[in-house]
Design goal:
The complex is a heterodimer of chains A (272) and B (328). Chain A has 272 residues and is of the alpha/beta class. Chain A has helices spanning 18-21, 79-85, 125-133, 153-158, 178-185, 206-218, 257-260, and strands at residues 2-7, 10-16, 29-34, 44-47, 50-52, 69-75, 93-99, 111-117, 137-144, 162-167, 174-175, 199-203, 222-226, 242-246, 252-256, 263-265. In chain B, strand 9 (136-140), helix 3 and strand 10 form a beta-alpha-beta unit. Chain B is globular, with a radius of gyration of 19 Å. Classes of the chains: A alpha/beta (272), B alpha/beta (328).
């Protein structure tokens, strides 16, 4: 296990977990728990950021099935991430995964737009790389409150993505929200728009994802969102992480984000 | 770093783990608690389901319930506060979509039921009567998250009436799950016994609340909820102790069990079996891990049958430990 800081209050953890590393698909997550502790008691869901063959690799190499290590990137926010950050060498963790559906339903359209807010980039790297490697154009827009929140941006550039940043304070990239950035890159009045994205995949805070969902709908673009919900188990047994998902009859039902998501078609989410 | 390995093989050994809860016979005393194990099919990748002493799936109600608004759980110090609100698709969907898998697990299935009033409990028990394969019913008269003005689990006479009503329509063994949120759990236990309960599940969650003072808001969507996990183990042990002294009805202990020491504490205090709850969230394999550790712990206690250890706690002023409750 190794650990390093990548941005303000943001850390990147590498863990040996072959069962997860060799099987995870883009957009899946794992549950991480500090073993044998009752405080923090439960595990936390973290996106599988990337996977590696060895503890030393600084870029993914070889077949997925050969991967033994996974990286997880997290912002220190509450009791779990505070404890995780200061984990002593030799302390044991328990991990289970890979979990969730991932971005399997995101169609190949020729130009995929990835939109991240805050720490949401962690769920998008491997999706972008997979699609870019398959020949699809991939634009990556990442918004945060300030530039210090961005870390390891080069991972996305090396993955073949066209990277654009926005910050509320203007300290990095375009000043404004990620929606402002999207508007400037892809103006509605843009003539032929041959270079415009055809589909959107998004991960970030709820309000930002709701806005990206509206933005996409307004341009007739399909959009998939990866919901972040508090989870106690990650495997469907606690019914904590529910989201209001619309059904075909015009009603809605609570769906478990962990096993029925975390990726949903944006139009199916009741953002109210 | 470990990555949830496959389940260990079943224990060998010469310890008799069989449990008798009145008419209900279980292969071992490690059950999984309602609301903490889904409908079991979510757990196939983690637990050898057939090894469990019993599976209590998530509580079902006569009609579908969407459950409460998020947030539904909050982790607190060594505990988990929840207000799920009996999110379930109702008894008919349970019979069609969940029960067939559960019955295929080859572990006793104890169906947890809840209703808004005595009539609904009887209605759902009646619907389940004659359905083959169900081992027992557990009456969830103690969920703190569904309030209808009348709490059937806090009044001894209401508790008696619900159990007796279900008794009247069901031939299955009946477990009554008691709430700790009462002045005297012994009185409610007597009500359940008088109504004809075969066993008592002790306890459901303890009412609690969590707040965010900066936003001046409660953290749970439902404002208050039920606390589970290690934080409530002392309360659960106290309740097992008090119920055991009040009635002869066998007890299933539940509340904060994480380790084999926790299991042994409940057994020695008077629980004939235990349910593992929140621990399955913290570590999906908790139940079978505890089962693996049980024979050695019982051997350390010097017994060859789990029943010989139940309730053997030595209390001050009581020179002889009371015997185990007898099957009746």
């Amino acid at each position: 296990m190794s650990h390093r800081q990548t941005a303000a209050n943001t850390y990147r953890l590498r863990v040996e977990c072959p069962g997860i590393a060799a099987a995870a698909v883009a957009g899946q997550f794992a549950m991480l728990r500090i073993a044998d502790r009752v405080d923090p008691l439960l595990g936390r869901p973290l996106a599988v950021y990337d996977t590696y063959r060895s503890a030393e690799d600084d870029a993914p190499q070889g077949e997925i099935s050969e991967r033994r290590f996974a990286d997880f990137v997290y912002v220190v926010h509450g009791r779990f991430t505070t404890a995780l950050k200061s984990l002593a060498p030799g302390e044991r963790m328990t991990l289970w995964g890979p979990l969730g559906n991932g971005y399997r339903e995101v169609p190949t359209t020729g130009h995929l737009l990835l939109v991240a807010g805050g720490i949401g980039q962690t769920a998008l790297l491997t999706l972008g790389r997979d699609r870019a490697a398959a020949g699809e154009k991939v634009t990556f827009c990442w918004g945060a409150s300030r530039g210090a929140a961005f870390g390891d941006i080069d991972d996305f550039r090396r993955a073949g993505l066209d990277v654009h940043l926005a910050t509320l304070d203007g300290s990095s990239g375009k000043r404004g929200t990620v929606i402002d950035l999207l508007d400037s890159l892809f103006p509605r009045s843009g003539a032929a728009e041959t270079d415009a994205p055809r589909h959107v995949a998004c991960c970030g805070p709820d309000g930002m994802m709701a806005a990206v969902s509206r933005w996409s709908e307004g341009r007739g673009l399909g959009c998939h969102v990866s919901l972040e919900a508090p989870m106690a188990c990650g495997i469907g047994i606690c019914f904590t992480c529910v989201a209001r998902v619309k059904d075909a009859e015009g009603g809605w039902d609570y769906k478990r984000t962990c096993i029925e998501g975390p990726v949903f078609a944006a139009t199916s989410i009741d953002w109210s | 770093m470990t990555n949830a390995p496959a389940d260990s093989p079943p224990d060998g050994g010469s310890i008799d783990l069989t449990v008798h809860l009145g008419r209900l016979r279980l292969p071992n005393p490690i059950l999984v608690a309602s609301g903490t194990f889904g409908y079991a099919k979510e757990m196939v990748d983690f637990v050898d389901l057939h090894r469990l002493g019993g599976i209590v799936p998530k509580t079902i109600t006569p009609r579908p319930r969407p459950g409460n608004v998020p947030w539904r759980t909050i982790e607190t110090s060594a505990g988990l506060l929840n207000s799920i609100g009996l999110d379930n698709d109702g008894v008919e969907a349970f019979l069609r979509h969940q029960l067939p898998f559960l019955l295929g697990c080859a572990a006793p299935v104890i169906v947890s039921i809840a209703g808004a009033d005595q009539r609904e409990f009887v209605q759902i028990a009646d619907r389940l009567e004659g359905v083959p394969g169900i081992a027992a019913l557990e009456l969830n008269i103690s969920c703190p998250n569904v309030s209808h003005g009348v709490d059937l689990g806090t009044d001894p006479e209401a508790c008696r009436s619900v159990v007796a009503g279900v008794r009247g329509v069901s031939r299955l063994p009946i477990l009554a799950k008691l709430t700790p949120n009462v002045t005297s759990i012994a009185d409610v236990a007597r009500g359940a016994r008088d109504g004809g309960a075969d066993a008592l599940t002790v306890i459901n969650t303890c009412q609690g609340m969590a707040v965010d003072w900066r936003r001046r808001k409660p953290l749970l969507g439902n404002v208050v909820g039920g606390l589970s996990g290690p934080a409530i183990k002392p309360i659960a042990l106290r309740c097992v102790h008090q119920v055991r002294r009040a009635v002869d009805t066998p007890i299933i202990g539940v509340g904060g069990i994480m380790t084999i020491d926790d299991v042994m504490e409940f057994l020695v205090t008077g629980a004939s079996a235990v349910q593992v709850g929140t621990a399955s969230f913290a570590e999906p394999r908790s139940s079978t891990r505890l089962l693996d550790a049980l024979p050695a712990a019982l051997a350390e206690a010097g017994v060859t049958r789990v029943a010989d250890f139940v309730g053997t706690i030595r209390l001050p002023g009581a020179p002889q430990a009371p015997s185990s409750p007898q099957p009746h």
